[in-house]
Write a structure and sequence with these properties.
CATH topology: Cytochrome p450
Number of helices: 12
Oligomer: single chain
CATH architecture: Orthogonal Bundle
CATH superfamily: Cytochrome P450
Radius of gyration: 20 Å
Length: about 325
């Protein structure tokens, strides 16, 4: 979204989301424990589909105030809406996207109307309250941003956790550092974001005529940014292709930057940090089920995630 609309819409949404994120750690811990409890009897599980994919969906659902009995339905819609990011959608995926988009838009319309009459302790109520207090947000802008939180936050946070677990399991000396001192988890997550972040490529639109790296660019042209390349830049990071959780945190761009930096970054960090600590504390002997095989990557352009990661506990 360009100016002047960007600086009108983003601040109230960010204010509400950051306030919720700041106090959601107990909620995140509770959902993580619930997911880990479910896999204990099986002796092994698919880290992606059984843990890191449902975790952020359930967290944002709880923050939004989605009723527990509707979580499965909400999760299904979220998976459908994510297809908006897939430029190679099949006809079946297009139908799934359209059906899910209509359903979740209708759901949010109903919830916004309900919160005006019956405020609750959730993010939808927070945003509706800010709107009533003078924030210049239309209902359609609120709905679009709530859907954006689902699309942008769920897939990327899932892949951040999945990529992180794989990196740690394939670098046991680095995992040993986290196990010995869980307080370094914030630093560990920053290194995962730099080393194998969930987004490889993103785009920006130039607000004016400018020069980037010696190349003249006209206003309103699209600039494609290779985030992985920037995060492995040897001029910025020593031994950039090494995974080193002791590395002094540097200026990685896994969340983008500037005025359009990822609005969900604080929440993603909270979820990833809690997930890694709890996972390895609960299952100290966690290991790959097929250590000699490289996991299959998700086939979604621009994104960097694992399709499936079977682990043993």
């Amino acid at each position: 979204m360009d100016e002047p609309h960007h600086s009108r819409v983003r601040p109230p949404i960010a204010k509400a989301l950051y306030a919720r994120a700041a106090k959601c750690k107990p909620l995140v811990d509770e959902i993580i424990d619930e997911k880990l409890d479910a896999v204990v009897p099986r002796g092994g599980f698919d880290l992606l589909n059984d843990f890191s994919i449902p975790l952020p969906i359930d967290v944002i659902g709880a923050i939004l105030g989605v009723d527990i009995e509707r979580r499965a339905e909400f999760r299904d819609w979220s998976e459908g809406v994510i297809q908006v990011l897939n430029p190679f959608r099949t006809p079946q995926q297009v139908a799934y996207l359209e059906r899910s988009g209509e359903a979740i838009s209708t759901y949010f319309e109903e919830q916004i109307a309900d919160r005006r009459a019956n405020p609750k302790d959730d993010l939808i109520s927070d945003v509706v309250t800010l709107q009533a207090e003078g924030a210049e947000l239309t209902d359609r802008e609120i709905i679009s941003n709530l859907i954006g939180l689902l699309v942008g936050g769920n897939l990327t946070t899932s892949d951040l956790i999945g990529n992180g677990v794989y990196a740690l399991l394939t670098h046991p000396e680095q995992l040993a550092k986290l196990k010995a001192d869980p307080s370094i988890v914030a630093q560990v997550v920053e290194e995962i974001l730099r080393f194998d972040g969930p987004v490889d490529i993103t785009a920006r639109v130039t607000p004016r005529d400018m020069e980037i790296g010696g190349c003249p660019v006209k206003a309103r042209q699209s600039v494609i940014s290779l985030l992985r390349s920037a995060n492995h830049d040897p001029d910025i990071f020593e031994n950039p292709d090494d995974f080193d959780v002791s590395r002094k945190p540097g200026p990685h761009v896994a969340f983008g930057g500037g005025s359009h930096i990822c609005i969900g970054a604080p929440l993603a960090r909270i979820e990833a940090q809690a997930a890694l600590v709890k996972l390895f504390q609960r299952f100290p002997n966690l290991r790959l089920a097929r250590p000699d095989e490289k996991p299959e990557k998700r086939t979604l352009p621009f994104f960097n995630g694992i399709q499936r990661l079977d682990v043993l506990i």
